UniProtKB/TrEMBL annotation:
One Pfam family matching this protein: DUF1801
InterPro entries, per database record: YdhG-like
Domain YdhG-like: 16-111
Protein's recorded name: Iron chaperone
Domain of life per record: Bacteria
Length: 122
């Protein structure tokens, strides 16, 4: 996880820093074969060179970016979980619990859907 240290250490709010670190650690522990990279100042996970999911922070939330196709696929579940979303990201408010089951479904979907892809983005 050292690749994410600079990003994590740059989060001023201790509670937010801890939450981001927990989420990134969970993704790493759940998917140890995915590569961890930082691009555009965002921690990301890739599989066979293709983007699977990325994270960023804002004042009121952590943004999760699984690409548009996954947002469309899981829009109902995201709304049920209380996560606002756009066409590219969903937001986990700092005072909300992380729905790890939903996060796993989204990551699994991207891994399976992008299995034959040889580009970074869809």
């Amino acid at each position: 996880m050292a690749v994410f240290d600079e990003f994590i250490n740059g989060i001023d709010n201790g509670e937010q820093r801890e939450k981001v670190e927990q989420v990134l650690s969970w993704v790493h522990d759940t998917y140890p074969d995915m590569e961890r990279v930082v691009k555009w100042n965002q921690p990301m996970f890739t599989d066979h060179g293709t983007y699977i999911i990325g994270f960023s922070v804002a004042k009121k939330h952590m943004s999760v970016a699984p690409e548009n196709k996954a947002i469309t696929e899981f829009s109902g579940a995201l709304e049920e979980a209380g996560y606002a979303h756009t066409s590219q990201i969903f937001r986990i408010p700092w005072d909300s619990e992380v729905d790890y089951d939903l996060l796993k479904k989204i990551i699994d979907f991207n891994i399976e859907d992008k299995a034959g892809l040889d580009t970074f983005w869809r």
